[in-house]
Design a protein that fits this description.
single chain; mainly alpha; 7 helices; elongated
Amino acid sequence: MTRASSGGERMGGLRKGPAAIEWLSELLARMAGVALLGMMLVVCYGVVMRYALRSPVAWANEFARFSFLPVVALGLAFALRHGAHVATEVLTGVLSARARKGLHLLALTLFLAYGVLSCWAGWRLASVAFAKGLRSDEAEIPLVLVQAVIPIGFLALSLQALVQAGQALLGEARQTEPSNGAHPR
């Protein structure tokens, strides 16, 4: 094996990690979509039962509240990947390309720090729920199942921020990144 081919293989291996993380972001977003659909169906069921049939179901409201957490947490990395988080177009529009890249890297660093901190806090929260066997009030759902999406979602956000920072540093920035000063629409 030549030196050039081993280097090419190594780069190919390095590219598999980011592709896997982006695949994970997409998978988690699909799971968030399923949670959103489930939440909507249960809310509709609860409304029909309460107002049309005058037979409210106590667990429907709790299920809807608990479904909101995976919708948000599992969609974080997807939103970052597709440039759907908040952007300040007024500021970036007047900056040079180099300054925009620096600002983008700073934002990704902040996403990474926030993601790591939130992942750690979510892990602690879910660990306590698991250790104490905590359950929800109405449906008796183990709270660890609900709270486990917090560290999962924020870990995915952290990994996606790392991937995008690496891409920006290597000059492989995607179109969804604010490379031209405008936030994608």
